[in-house]
Amino acid sequence: MTGPNFFADNRGVSFRHAGAVGALLAAAATMIVQPALAQPVTDQPMGRPLSSVAAARAAAMIAANRALSDENTPPTTFQSVVSLNDPDVVAAARAASDRAGHDGLYYDYFRFISAINTVREKKADKLDIPHGTYHIYPPASFNNGQGLINLVNLSHVTIEGNGSTLLFAYLGKPDAPLTAIHSRAGIHINRSDHIALTNLTMDWDEALAVPVAISGTGQPGSPQSLTVNSAFPINPAMPMPISSFIPFNVAQRRFLLARDMAPADLAAWQAERSPHGSLPYGCGSSSLTATSTCFRHVSGQIYAFGPNEHFHPVPPHANTFLGTVRDNLFAAILGDGYSSFVTISGVTIYNSPGTGITLIGTGPAIHIKKLRIVRKPDALLAPGEQPRYLSTVADGLNFLTTAGDIALEDSEIANQGDDGLNVNAALRRAQAIDPHTVRTANIGLLNYWRVGGLVDVYDDKGGNLLAKGVPIAAVVTPPAPGQQVTVTLPSGSAPLVAGASYQLRVRDFDSTRILVRNNWFHDSSERGVIAHGSDIAVIQNRFDRTAESAVQALYDNQTGNAEGPPIENLLIAGNTIHDVNDEWFDSTYRSVAAPAAIAVYLASRSGFASYSEAADGNVFARHVMITNNAIDSVPGAGILVSQAQDVVVADNQVTNVGKHAFGMPVVDGNAVVVERSAGVNISGNNVDAPIIRGDR
Fold first, then answer.
1. Secondary structure letter of residue 282 according to DSSP
2. Measuring CA to CA, how many Å separate 32 from each of 6, 40, 154, 234, 254?
């Protein structure tokens, strides 16, 4: 049976089942670039009411989240205020700028340094940025690996933007190239607490994603090249460093739809998938120069593929790819170094060469609200400024191994080159050297391990929980970064066997207690929200036109690049989801993204038809509730749950599911698929397609 239509506005309307009139409307819609909201979505309800059971569960999770506590509420009155216009700040900035040269090009950069130093010296509790536009351009003396604006070792400080725009540079300009400069972030929040960053816009005033065409046979060893669209002229003295390219419909400014592909296109895409699920359009190098072995500038608008890069082009179409400067190590806003009690409010990010916001090894208590990460509207482009196709060339937000207690609310996250939001709480692989000692590793410079910290111990595949909440008894840290750490657990606390491999989940950085509420995710080139970790609530959001799943929680135990650990206590409720999951997939080889609007599952499989790599008895998700969601117009399933325990799928509306263009036998044409799971309650769902249940 078919329920009421919750998608009647012009952004969410479906043409898939609307007959001849719908076909005409669909054709017209292909000529329209979907606009971002003119204002933040804070006053617009994005989702649906929750049932009493879901509301009670959400309330308990919200009450435990310190991001929403009184302690994390920014002050409204201040004792000491520093302004960018203060005479001592201006004088110090002008002196530094004059020494650096280039006729004041670096003035605003030094102005922020001077103001932040003054805040620290005076122990001021507010930095005021007068309304205006600021060019944050660093000189050659810039200390690589830092932020362009560094909020380091600050406590109880509000940074008030007053609606200002901060213009940053990543590639540089002909008269001041940045090829020897590599910043980690636009704004870097490090070793700080009780920080509020409010009311400003961040923009990289450069084209970081450009339309490209691919030529050559695509066979290994044969030459191939990228040609950049002539509307985006390449400066031969400082060519754009292309590090990846993605399938993209340039005319519509969105990812390339599988349903728009002709049969020959589909065949070419399926040939592209490798047995390991890798995609050949990413570059293995993060070099900032245009001489990398991946995509090397040759002349004019042409880049050559490196010797180890090849691609089987789809049949020729104009403007079906974007070349990007994607830098996965970069964030417009980076929070790390155990920063805690941070509020980011009223911030807009238009054009980041990496992510919009990355939190790594930070928390607790990070509250992000009234955020907009969107493609810069054409109406705001300066004369001669090239159009924007993406808001970020990587994820919109990445919460990577955080201390948890994070809330994302009342925000618009759109036009990403990757996922909208990625919550990650990766396991650490370890090898036992005796019955109570293991060797393992840190991630980068982050020290995961401390005496007294709690760990959960899983088997090597991560599906069998062997011990929970084990306190660390001793830690021996190596003298050099990258060397392994020796971690000792209390004798008898975990059934370790010398020589065997295990997975350790570190509770200090478990990305736990995450709230994602009343946001609009749309037009991302991969998933809307990836939810890994524990105690995560994705409630009352809206999802439109995400290339892959709207909400996905998965465990990947096979590729060596695990998406995240087993999931615990996941609530997905009251969301509206429309026209998602129409990107390219492959039914022959592993695809990380399952073709379902909401997917909770094991990612490593030989195929969605067989699930042959999913061992019976393993549990990869526990305590999952999916309820009160409205899902419409999805190729594949509305909801997929696999290898979970204690599962509720109730009171969802699922309409207009269908067959994916590539064909996925397990999920095609089914409203709900729950398989290899235990303790399952499927009830009260309003659907117009089959519900498939396969308890183990």
1. B
2. 22, 21, 46, 28, 11
d(CA 448, CA 509): 7
Q: Using only C-alpha atoms, what is the Rg of the chain?
A: 25
Three-state SS for 332?
A: strand
12-16, 88-92, 271-275: segment of lowest average pLDDT: 12-16
Please give the pLDDT value at position 326: 83
**Among the ranges 212-221, 295-304, 388-397, which has the highest mean pLDDT value?**
388-397
Q: What is the pLDDT of residue 219?
A: 60
| pLDDT, tens digit, 9 for 90 and up, residues 149-189 | 999 999 999 999 999 999 998 887 766 667 667 788 999 99
Residue 508: is its pLDDT beyond 90? Answer: no
Q: Taking the model in full, what pTM does it have? A: 0.88
**Token pair in block for residue 671:** 């409203």
Query: Where do the domains of the chain lie, and which CATH numbers do they carry?
Result: 19-65+511-694 (no CATH), 67-174+184-205+328-382+390-404 (2.160.20), 209-324 (no CATH), 429-507 (2.40.10)
CB atoms within 10 A of CB 10: 8
Token look-up 């969301």 returns 575
Let me know: does 394 contact 64? Beta carbons within 8 Å: no
Can you spell out the DSSP letters for 149-202?
EEEES-EEEEEEEEEEEEEE-SSEETTEE-TT---SEEEEEES-EEEEEEEEEE
d(CA 608, CA 603): 10
CA 201/CA 372 separation, integer angstroms: 9
Helix (H) or strand (E) holding 243: none
